[in-house]
Structure formats: structure tokens, C-alpha cells
From TrEMBL:
It is found in: Membrane. Keywords: Leucine-rich repeat, Membrane, Repeat, Transmembrane, Transmembrane helix. The keyword Repeat applies. It comes from the Eukaryota. SUPFAM superfamilies: Protein kinase-like (PK-like). GO terms for molecular function: ATP binding; protein kinase activity. GO terms for cellular component: membrane. This is Protein kinase domain-containing protein. Residues 1-88 form the Protein kinase domain. It holds the Pfam family PK_Tyr_Ser-Thr. Its main location: membrane.
Length: 88
């Protein structure tokens, strides 16, 4: 199974609280336009640092952010035309 993993940067202010709030919100949400959360991981790494991640279904066509805000450098390197988002 191919999945998408969102690892939180716990060095950022409020990241741990954001993780808890996101888990609480996503456990009750069911919508056809949102990817499903498969599981959440809250642990400690081998150095004793907190580690938190969310495991989502993989979205084949990339993220909405990537469609709305394509990275110009990546497009030039890959020499592909920018994606066009439409209602279909």
C-alpha cells in the first residue's frame, strides 16, 4: 500500500498542540474530497526526541497546494508544462 506521511516539525512553536488538534478533528470528519487518515504515530526516536506523524492515503495527482502553487524551478528542471486545474 502506498501512503503519504506527514511528519510534524516539533521544533516549531505549537506543533505538538497542532498535532493533537488535527487528530481530534480528523477522527470525526468523513468527506469525499478529503483523503483518509490511516493512522497516527506519536513516539520517541532513538535520541529521545519526540516524533509525531500522520499517515494518509496517497493522493495520485499530488496535493492541492502543488496544483495551485506550482514550484517554478521544478517545472523548469523537469521541462514539463505547468498543470492546468479544471473542474473535471
Amino acid at each position: 500500500m502506498v501512503v503519504a506521511v506527514k511528519v510534524l516539525n516539533l521544533a516549531r512553536y505549537g506543533a505538538a498542540k497542532s498535532f493533537i488538534l488535527e487528530c481530534k478533528a480528523l477522527r470525526n470528519i468523513r468527506h469525499m474530497n478529503l483523503v483518509k487518515v490511516i493512522t497516527a504515530c506519536s513516539s520517541t526516536d532513538y535520541q529521545g526526541n519526540d516524533f509525531k506523524a500522520l499517515i494518509y492515503e496517497f493522493m495520485v495527482n499530488g496535493s492541492l497546494d502543488g496544483w495551485l502553487h506550482p514550484v517554478v524551478e521544478r517545472i523548469e528542471i523537469e521541462e514539463e508544462a505547468p498543470k492546468q486545474l479544471n473542474l473535471l
